[in-house]
C-alpha cells in the first residue's frame, strides 16, 4: 500500500515539477522581454515629460500630434482599437490581440505625453504587455489556455516595470479581468515576471511614484467616520468620472465623426484651456500634483474637476494613454481638499482619496490594499481598509473597462456574470 502511494505521489510530484520548471522559464523570459521593452517605454515617457517641461511651447503641437496618432492607426489598419478592453477580452477568450498593437501604443502614448495630453501610462503598459505576452504565447506555440496565462504575465511585467509596484501589479492582472474570481493559475508566473521586470526597471533608476511614507493618526470614531464619508464621496466621484468619460466619447462620435477632425479639435481645446488657466498641472499624468497633495497636503480646490475634463477630452478624442493615474490625481486632490475643509490631515486624506478612487474605478479591492502599502507604507492600514471597503461597495457595478466582468454580486452571494456599467 505504501509502495503504491509513494509511486503515485512521485508521479504527481514529477508532473508538478515539470509544470513549475515550464512556467518558471516562461515567466523569466516574459519578465526579461516585456520588462526590457517596458523599461525603455518608461524611460522615453520620462524623457518626453522632461522635454515638455523644459520647452513649454511644444504643447502647441498637440493637435498635430493627434493627427499623427490617427494616421498611424489608420496606416496600420487598426481603426477599431478597444485599448485595454481588448486585453481583457483576450483573456476571456473572446478576441485576439494583434502584435502591431505593441508598437502603435508605444509610439502614440509617447506622442500624447510629449505634447501635453492629459493621460496616464498604465493603460498603455497593460496593452503593451498584453500584446507582447500574446506574441510570446504564439512563439511558444501554447494552446489558448496557456496563452492567456502568458498575456497575464505580460500585463503584470509591464505594469510592474512602468509603475514600480510589483505586488500590486501581480494582483491587478489576476483581479481586474473578472470581479469575484481570481486567476490563480497565473499566480506563480505573474509573481516571477513582475519581480524580474521590476528589478530590470530599477537597474536603470526608473521609479514612477514619488510619495514619502505617511504617518496616520490613531484611528478614532471621528476619524473613522470622516474616512467613511470621504470614501463614499470618492466612490460617487469614480462613477461620475466613468460616466463622464463615456459621455464625452459618445458626444465626440456623434458630432465629430471624422477621427482627424475630432482629435485635432480636442488638441486645440487642451491647448486653449492650458493657456487660459496658465498652468501645466493638467497636462501629462500629473504625478507632481499628486505628490504635492500627498506629501505637502496642498491642492487647488477645483483641480479634480479640471483633471476629469482634460482627461476625458484627451482619451475619448483618440489620444493614447491610461485613465488610472488621472484617477489617482482626481482622488488625491479631492481628498486633499476634503481634509482641508474638515480639519483632518489633508495629506492623509489625499492618500485615502487616491486609494478609494482607484478601487472605485477598477473594482479591485485587493490590488488597492497592496498598492496603498507600496505607495504610502503600512501605518494607515485601518484607513486603507475602510476606504477600500466603502468605495468597493458604494461604486456599484460601474468600471473603466467595459470588458471587465462582474462574476459575483458585490452585495449578495449571487452569481451575476455581467459586464460593468459605463
Write a compact overview of the structure shown.
It is built from 16 helices and 3 strands.
Account of the 3D structure:
Helices cover 70% and strands 3% of the residues. It has 16 helices and 3 strands. Strands 1-2-3 form a 3-stranded mixed sheet, with no helix packed on it. Strand 2 (405-408) and strand 3 (415-419) form a beta hairpin. The longest helix has 53 residues, at 2-54. The protein starts with a helix and ends with a strand.
How do the helices and strands line up, and which of them pair or pack?
Elements: H1 2-54, H2 62-75, H3 84-91, H4 101-115, H5 122-139, H6 144-163, H7 166-175, E1 178-179, H8 187-203, H9 221-255, H10 259-277, H11 287-296, H12 303-317, H13 324-342, H14 346-362, H15 365-376, H16 381-394, E2 405-408, E3 415-419
Parallel strand pairs: 1-2
Antiparallel strand pairs: 2-3
Amino acid at each position: 500500500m505504501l509502495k503504491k502511494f509513494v509511486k503515485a505521489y512521485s508521479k504527481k510530484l514529477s508532473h508538478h515539477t515539470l509544470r513549475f520548471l515550464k512556467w518558471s522559464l516562461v515567466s523569466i523570459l516574459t519578465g526579461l522581454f516585456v520588462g526590457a521593452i517596458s523599461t525603455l517605454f518608461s524611460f522615453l515617457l520620462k524623457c518626453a515629460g522632461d522635454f515638455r517641461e523644459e520647452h513649454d511651447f511644444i504643447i502647441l503641437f498637440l493637435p498635430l500630434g493627434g493627427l499623427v496618432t490617427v494616421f498611424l492607426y489608420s496606416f496600420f489598419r487598426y481603426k477599431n482599437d478597444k485599448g485595454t478592453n481588448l486585453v481583457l477580452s483576450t483573456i476571456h477568450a473572446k478576441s485576439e490581440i494583434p502584435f502591431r498593437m505593441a508598437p502603435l501604443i508605444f509610439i502614440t502614448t509617447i506622442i500624447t505625453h510629449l505634447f501635453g495630453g492629459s493621460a496616464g501610462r498604465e493603460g498603455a503598459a497593460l496593452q503593451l504587455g498584453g500584446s507582447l505576452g500574446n506574441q510570446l504565447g504564439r512563439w511558444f506555440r501554447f494552446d489558448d489556455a496557456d496563452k492567456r496565462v502568458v498575456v497575464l504575465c505580460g500585463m503584470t511585467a509591464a505594469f510592474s516595470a512602468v509603475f514600480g509596484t510589483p505586488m500590486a501589479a501581480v494582483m491587478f492582472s489576476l483581479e481586474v479581468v473578472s470581479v469575484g474570481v481570481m486567476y490563480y493559475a497565473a499566480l506563480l508566473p505573474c509573481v516571477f515576471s513582475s519581480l524580474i521586470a521590476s528589478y530590470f526597471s530599477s537597474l536603470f533608476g526608473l521609479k514612477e511614484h514619488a510619495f514619502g511614507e505617511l504617518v496616520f493618526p490613531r484611528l478614532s470614531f471621528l476619524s473613522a467616520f470622516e474616512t467613511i464619508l470621504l470614501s463614499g464621496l470618492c466612490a460617487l466621484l469614480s462613477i461620475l468620472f466613468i460616466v463622464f468619460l463615456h459621455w464625452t466619447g459618445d458626444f465626440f462620435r456623434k458630432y465629430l465623426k471624422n477621427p482627424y477632425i475630432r482629435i485635432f479639435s480636442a488638441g486645440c481645446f487642451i491647448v486653449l484651456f492650458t493657456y487660459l488657466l496658465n498652468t501645466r498641472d493638467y497636462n501629462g499624468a500629473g504625478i507632481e500634483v499628486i505628490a504635492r497633495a500627498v506629501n505637502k497636503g496642498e491642492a487647488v480646490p477645483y483641480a479634480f474637476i479640471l483633471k476629469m475634463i482634460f482627461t476625458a477630452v484627451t482619451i475619448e478624442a483618440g489620444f493614447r494613454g491610461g485613465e488610472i493615474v488621472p484617477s489617482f490625481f482626481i482622488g488625491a486632490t479631492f481628498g486633499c481638499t476634503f481634509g482641508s475643509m474638515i480639519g483632518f490631515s489633508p495629506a492623509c486624506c489625499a492618500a485615502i482619496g487616491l486609494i478609494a478612487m482607484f478601487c472605485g474605478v477598477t473594482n479591485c479591492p485587493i490590488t488597492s490594499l497592496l498598492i496603498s502599502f507600496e505607495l504610502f507604507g503600512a501605518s494607515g492600514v485601518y484607513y486603507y481598509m475602510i476606504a477600500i471597503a466603502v468605495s468597493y461597495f458604494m461604486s456599484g457595478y460601474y468600471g473603466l473597462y467595459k470588458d471587465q466582468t462582474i462574476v459575483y454580486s458585490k452585495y449578495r452571494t449571487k452569481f451575476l456574470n455581467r459586464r460593468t456599467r459605463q
